[in-house]
Design a protein that fits this description.
The protein has 97 residues and is mainly beta. The chain has one helix and seven strands.
């Protein structure tokens, strides 16, 4: 059964970016929710944007990396029910900058 709250919440992606046996974590900006904590690349999805496309866009915008979304691995609702998070495993595609 699907959760009816998910239809009214904002949607965001979590890009789990891997390069071989390495995984990228970034320190959240002080102005962000949970500023100063370490996390994966995250970002709100644009209206009508596909989840995989949001992963590619957010990785480029936030850390300047090109990624290939491989598969969705999880979905969760944030504490406080502000966002539905779509967790994606992504592979680094190109050099680290």
């Amino acid at each position: 059964m699907s959760d009816p709250r998910k239809a009214t919440l904002r949607h965001a992606i979590v890009a789990i970016i891997e390069d071989g046996d390495e995984m990228l974590f970034i320190e959240r900006g002080k102005e962000d929710t949970y500023g100063g904590y370490w996390s994966n690349v995250t970002g709100q999805m644009d209206e009508g944007e596909a989840q995989a496309a949001a992963c590619v866009r957010e990785a480029a915008e936030e850390v300047g990396l090109k990624v290939v979304p491989e598969r969705k691995v999880w979905e969760s609702v944030t504490r406080g029910a502000h966002f539905v998070l779509h967790w994606w495993l992504c592979r680094l595609d190109g050099p680290k900058q």
